[in-house]
Specification:
This protein has helices spanning 16-29, 77-82, 103-106, 116-122, 132-139, 145-153, 161-171, 177-189; strands at 4-11, 33-39, 48-56, 69-74, 87-96, 126-130. It has 190 residues and is α/β, with parallel strands linked by helices. The longest helix is centred in the N-terminal third of the chain and has 14 residues, at 16-29.
Amino acid sequence: MSTKNIMIVGVGGQGSLLASKLLGYLLMSEGYDVKVSEVHGMSQRGGSVVTYVRYGEHVASPVIDEGEADSIVSFELLEAARTLPFLKKDGTIVTNIQQIDPMPVITGAAEYPENLVEKLRSTGAKVDAMDCVALAREAGSVKAVNLVLLGRLSHYFDFPDEAWDRAIEACVPARFLEINKKAFALGRAN
């Protein structure tokens, strides 16, 4: 099997690191060699967070270069647009439609781009966009956006529900397990 590449992108505090940990756990439990690399940037100040998840029979490096990502999982629309050059020609973007203003927008130095989903699709990218915040809220916590996104991403894998459940149980603290399982189920169902 050739190596597959997934980028998980977002803004600090959205839960992208838990998402990458859970995805890495799932892939290892399914027998793949897995490399995960985290790039934090100014994550504690609301800046970009990027995680690379690479898996296959043998993975030599944890880094994904431009044009190599099979999938981009994005917690925020502008982050999806920013990382578009990393997507393969036939790759898929699974994205939350949430918009979080970066500092230049907050200070008035720039405007948040309009119609980003349409602009992403106009490049030929396959874009799977949904309101993950609303589904996370329905699950019981807006902090569960990460599990909603993973639920949606699960459509692009051929792993049994039990494997996803085991990964969630292994990576999510017990007191948040019910909400996170519900968030995953809502993402998977939509």
